[in-house]
Design a protein that fits this description.
By secondary structure, this protein is mainly α. It contains six helices and no strands. It is globular, with a radius of gyration of 19 Å.
């Protein structure tokens, strides 16, 4: 039987508040989807008709996966902060920047050079991801990620 004792402990309240922070940041990206779905719901004849629609199912799936992703991302960043001993805001900002570079920068580079997407569209997405990664690490540093600060 494998154990998970090698995973660093992260304070549960930090995971909860960080997930809310990360989810709010990702909702900024998903807002056009939800806004369009909301307008379709208003145009539907009844609530029951809308709830049976594919738009409602797609919005619910996007919302649920966004919450799960936010929790996993928050634990990952918190675990990195615990493992590296990050205590300062400067260190948290560097760590968040590294997470951004490792997770998002390659896709933005391919969007600009390979897919030739407009720079303003790529910049908005990059700004949202910077806020989501660097902002999350700064928030977690403020909140505290260690379950026992004397360890």
């Amino acid at each position: 039987m494998a154990t998970l004792s090698y995973l660093p402990p992260v304070k549960p309240s930090a995971i909860a508040t960080g997930a809310v922070f990360s989810h709010a940041a990702s909702l900024a990206i998903l807002a056009p989807l939800f806004g369009d779905t909301y307008h379709r719901a208003q145009a539907a004849n009844s609530k029951e008709e809308f709830l049976k629609s594919k738009e409602a199912a797609g919005a619910a799936a996007a919302w649920g996966s966004s919450i799960v992703g936010s929790v996993i991302q928050t634990y990952g960043v918190g675990a990195l902060m615990v493992s590296t001993g990050t205590l300062s805001y400067k260190g948290a900002a560097y760590l968040g920047g590294l997470v951004f570079l490792a997770s998002s920068a390659p896709s933005f580079i391919s969007q600009v050079f390979t897919e030739k997407r407009p720079l303003d569209t790529v910049a908005v997405g990059a700004l949202a991801r910077v806020f989501e990664t660097v902002g999350l690490s700064l928030w977690l540093n403020y909140w505290g990620v260690r379950s026992n600060p004397f360890d």
